[in-house]
Design brief:
CATH topology: TIM Barrel
Distance between the termini: 8 Å
Largest sheet: 8 strands, parallel, barrel
Helix content: 40-55%
Low-confidence stretches: none
CATH class: Alpha Beta
Order of helices and strands: EHEHHEHEHHEEEEEHEHEHHHHHEHEHH
CATH superfamily: Luciferase-like domain
Number of domains: 1
Oligomer: single chain
Number of helices: 16
Length: 441
Amino acid sequence: MAQSETLHLAADVSFIHTDHLWRTKGSWVGYQYYGPDFYEDIARIAERGLFDMLFFGDAAETPEIYGGNFDAAVRLGIRWPKHDMMPMIPVMARATRHLGFGTTMSTTYHHPFHVARLFASLDHVTGGRVGWNAVTSAYKNEAANWGFDTMPPASDRYDRAREHVKVVTDLWASVEADAIKLDRDNGVFADPSKVHLLNHRGKYFNVRGPLPVIPSPQGRPIIIQAGQSPDGMDLAARYADLQFVARRGLKSMAEHRATLDKLLVQHGRDPRDLGCLWLTRVQTGHTEAEAREKEKRFLDQVPPEAGLIELSFHFGVDFSRIPGEMRLADAAELVRKEQVHWGSFLEIIDTEPPQTTVAEMGRRFIGERASHIVGDAKQIADRFEELHDAGGRNGGIILSKSFAAPGMLRDFVELVVPELQRRGLVRTRYAGTTLRENLNA
């Protein structure tokens, strides 16, 4: 990110066909998950709204925490199925010219050489519009799918992640930007003095290098990180260009940003080097009444157990076995032991009334996991300004995936974006052709 205070826009489109959305009126009509038409359509809409990126989170597993099996997740279509979205990105890139794409690969389960080579290659295919969401992975079933009998402890996963991301960034830098000569007269393709071995020998990885890929169109792919635990914050402060953050109030947003800024300085970086995209669920319409009617329809079609399934998935605890009348705060120790999104659970505890029960949070979790806004364009824009100010005007908003697609995204682009532009909060044209150029503008 740069000194610009532009409010940047992204949309989380992870698994938007599932998670209590596949039945939503107007969503997925005439489309199939395995076909590209739907994603091309979404990409064009997002580019029309001058979004910086579409984002795909991932966890290569079938949820089995709730109830001790995958029955509820499969039956209701909640976080299942999960196709690998990497192949869809070149398709969406061909349908657009400026829109960026963030996608996920795990530092726990993938080798850094593979990650560096794949993302550098994908950056060329897209013309410099790719970001790597570097996750440590925190789900038991995913660990089992990759051959682990138990999920590695969080401290080990982050220790490995720090080495992993450093190796990836060193590989991306192993071929200097001006290494390629293409001197036909003298028969010189590239200058060997500008291509460097790594000879990395670490605790987790041994990598010789160099990376056999021409330098990235945007210098290197954007690095994204979303951890809110102390280890996650530290990893972001060391390496990330963007952090995705789920905070539920202005106070906690400001505190998060202040903590991140201190860590950035400790690691020799400028606070403006790392922008935060604040996760926000939006429901809008031509009027507030229309938006509230849409919100009611959305919540009415959510299965009663969906919130508890999501709580179980996010925090690694089977909430079907916890008495509904238990205070949510009293379940904190169970969550802490699982080492799954502990920072996010603390955020909920800190922002909920002390007497909130497990059953109450289960009913509200789908709609209120993160910041959410229901209203007309001016109301949405008012709230976005407050959120942007609380975050130090260093980043922007990533729309939560709980929306009917492509209709809700189209409504946002047609109704809210013009109001944001009128206020000078967002751009009226793209600054460049790469994701980094647009994020830095």
